[in-house]
Automatic annotation (TrEMBL):
Stated name of the protein: DNA-binding transcriptional regulator, AcrR family
InterPro entries attached to this UniProt entry: DesT_TetR_C, DNA-bd_HTH_TetR-type_CS, Homeodomain-like_sf, HTH-type_TetR-like_transc_reg, HTH_TetR, Tet_transcr_reg_TetR-rel_C_sf
DNA-binding region: 27-46
GO biological process: negative regulation of DNA-templated transcription
UniProt entry keywords in alphabetical sequence: DNA-binding, Transcription, Transcription regulation
């Protein structure tokens, strides 16, 4: 086995162990034993567990980031298509690389140079905000709230993914369709003035508005 092949083998073995046991629960000894090499071989390639973990995380971050960037940057006929592509891109990543997703969503990026799962989600939310902002303004909504909606959309998909990665039920297409249904129809029915029915101040305002319109409050 060449040096490059050995390095790839160690990364693959470590990726499975980190996904199974987490960073703290994995040791260089276990990586070496599963790869059937001595510990000095692992140290020689990566300098230690932190270096090996950083390589694993950086690869997963890059893979996920590139997939979602590509998905939401494609020309689309509607904003719904953008949401669909982004949702499917994340679910595809989870489906194809469940170990990587478990590592990114569970552990902190020790020694990582490309960021973390949270930083990827924030970056995606920023891109979604750039897409949602103009149409929301055209429809009379507060442009500042676009950031809140964007974070909510990204969080909706990523949180569902955390549950789906272990069960894979319902199937991926069904999950994507339901998430897009919830997100898109929620966006399509936004109230221009969001209210809380449990807030006494809001209840009083609703009553005043209804009275001013000559109607009885509900």
């Amino acid at each position: 086995m060449s040096s490059g092949e050995r390095r790839e083998q160690l990364i693959s073995v470590a990726r499975a162990l980190f996904a199974e046991r987490g960073f703290d629960g994995t040791s260089v000894e276990e990586v070496a034993a599963r790869a059937q090499v001595s510990k000095p071989v692992v140290y020689g390639h990566f300098g230690g567990k932190e270096g090996l973990y950083a390589v694993v995380v950086d690869r997963e971050v890059t893979t996920l980031d590139n997939a979602i960037k590509s998905a939401i940057s494609q020309p689309s006929k509607s904003y719904r298509e953008v949401i669909e592509r982004g949702t499917l891109a994340l679910l595809d990543y989870i489906d194809d690389r469940p170990d990587g997703f478990r590592i990114l969503s569970r552990d902190s990026p020790v020694g990582s140079t490309t960021g973390s799962f949270a930083s990827i989600l924030n970056d995606i939310a920023t891109r979604v905000e750039d897409l949602l902002g103009p149409p929301l303004v055209r429809r009379g909504y507060d442009p500042v709230i676009a950031g809140v909606y964007s974070q909510a959309l990204v969080g909706l998909v990523s949180s569902a993914g955390l549950s789906w990665v272990d069960t894979r039920r319902p199937d991926k297409a069904k999950v994507a369709a339901e998430l897009v249904n919830l997100a898109w129809n929620g966006l399509s029915s936004l109230e221009h003035r969001a209210t809380l029915l449990t807030d006494p101040r809001e209840t009083a305002q609703i009553t005043r508005d209804a009275g001013a319109a000559g109607a009885q409050p509900r």
